[in-house]
Design goal:
With 337 residues, the chain is α/β, with parallel strands linked by helices. It has two domains: 7-223 and 321-328, Alpha-Beta Complex (Spore Coat Polysaccharide Biosynthesis Protein SpsA, Chain A); 228-309, no CATH class. It is 38% helix and 18% strand. It has twelve helices and ten strands. Strands 1, 2, 3, 4, 5, 6, 7, 8, 9 and 10 form a ten-stranded mixed beta sheet that branches. The longest helix is centred in the last third of the chain and has 30 residues, at 249-278. The radius of gyration is 21 Å and the shape is globular. The chain starts with 6 loop residues before the first strand and ends in a 9-residue tail after the last strand. Residues 8-120 form the Glycosyltransferase 2-like domain. It holds the Pfam family Glycos_transf_2.
Length: 337
Amino acid sequence: MKPNADVCVIIAAKNAAETIGRAITSALAEPETAEVMVVDDGSSDGTADVSRQADDGTGRLTVTSFDVNRGPAAARNHAISLSKAPVLAILDADDFFFAGRLKNLLSQTDWDFIADNIAFVDEEKASSAHLALEAFPAAPRDLDLSEFIEGNISKRGVRRGEIGFLKPLMRRDFLDAHRLRYQESLRLGEDYDLYARALTKGARYKIIHSCGYGAVVRGDSLSSSHRTIDLKRLYEADRAILSQTGLSDQARALIGRHERHIRGRYELREFLDIKRQSGPKAALLYALGKPSAIPAIAGGILADKTERFRRQPQAAPVALGGSGALRYLLQPPSTAV
């Protein structure tokens, strides 16, 4: 590892040959990067070879490959097991760091997790996004479990901008002390699950408003779609947290709210899947056999039927506006709530 470097940057990648070079280059450009761990998660497009071509010769890049796709949670856990750095950073294969990101984050104190602002960037303007980046003051603040849960409950008709998009640095000693790793059965919400479990165990999660992470908006992103079973596994993950002993009443109520939200989405999707595969009668029998699911199913169908009368929500975060300004996840400190 480089002397005085603290951070292992973990990049889980599947079929990311077109973008991963940019991600790796941005991570290696940070003086605080001790290691870049790329895990090629069963790609078929030469992602591993392209990754090796981005090596800067400093010995900090390690590329490993899975023969079959195992999901981002398994890929990240594998990278954590190989790494040695005391601080871990997650970088998606189609995103990038703005220069100086790690220095700004590491200058803060008293945290187990720390995240900065995110700029949403259109793919065609990613190379010049740094020219439009605004210099917000850090204005550090703590993120509690209540705000975290609220920021991970999606709302119809509201442009996506959930707290779940944040990409915090994580202290390895906190993860190890509480035996925390990504839950490998999850293909959706694996970040949410890890951070929620950490917060219930007393993690100090700090946020700064200065921006160091560029999230590229792509319509074909793997994270933009999910299976019905993925929703089921996510609410089951909430139930696993709720089964913990020693959980505070407030934490139990907050996690329970998220569990009901995700379970409702699952029940609606399951109903629609049965209707599409086996017909309306079979779907109706499913609903009648699960009376507790009827409110979520009926509410979801009603919302879908009236969707055209409301402003259409954005399927993904809007990036560059007409003026060329970037869109940020967190409001500038002067207007932040």
